[in-house]
Amino acid sequence: MYAIIETGSKQYWVNPEELIQVERLEAKEGDKVELKALWASDNKDGGKKTAKVTAEVVKHLRGKKIVIYKTKAKNTYQKTQGHRQELTELKIKDIVIS
Predict the structure, then answer these.
(1) Which of 54, 65, 70, 92 has its CA 20 to 30 A from that of 14?
(2) Calculated CA dihedral for residues 15, 93, 36, 21, nearest 10 degrees
(3) What is the per-residue DSSP string for 77-93?
(4) Comparing C-alpha atoms, which of 21, 27, 18 is closest to residue 93?
(5) By the 8 A CB rule, do 30 and 3 touch?
(6) Confidence of residue 1 (pLDDT cuts 50, 70, 90)
(7) Domain segments of the chain as ranges
(8) Which residues contact 64 (CB under 8 A, 6 or more apart)?
(9) First CA to last CA across the chain, in angstroms?
(10) What is the pTM of this model?
(11) Residue 7 CA, distance from chain mean position
(12) Residue by residue, what is the 3-state secondary structure of 40-57?
């Protein structure tokens, strides 16, 4: 059984008992959250449209640092900027197809 979920304007392909990292969610560690399922399948009939995906928040963390460097040719313009994305790690508990 698997599903395609949407969270943080991104889509993820998930299976039960899988760990995924998504953009930061406003939930505490240990909370259960329901995610919007765009598509789901139970490997028997191809696919169905309606499904409910339940996940548990494992922890909050930060991603790798990304360095952005800008420069312009023939000028003395240089700019360096860094970014670390706030992430939430989720464990997919259940996919219920209705």
Answers:
(1) 65
(2) -70
(3) -EEEEEEEEEEEEEEEE
(4) 18
(5) no
(6) confident
(7) 2-97
(8) 84
(9) 13
(10) 0.81
(11) 6
(12) EECCCCCCECCEEEEEEE
Is the separation of the CB atoms in 35 and 53 below 8 Å? yes
Q: Which amino acid is at 59?
A: K
Q: Please report, as a single letter, which amino acid is at residue 32.
A: K
Cβ distance 59 to 20 under 8 Å?
Answer: no
- Rounded CA gap, 58 and 66, in Å? 24
Give pLDDT, residue 29.
Answer: 96
Residue 57 to residue 30: CA distance in whole angstroms:
5
Distance between CA atoms of 35 and 25, rounded to whole angstroms?
11
Whole-number Cα distances in Å, 54 to 1, 35, 62:
13, 6, 23
* Predicted confidence (pLDDT) per residue in 39-67, tens digit: 988 876 666 667 899 999 999 999 999 99
Residues 6+ apart with CB under 8 A from 50: 37, 40, 97, 98
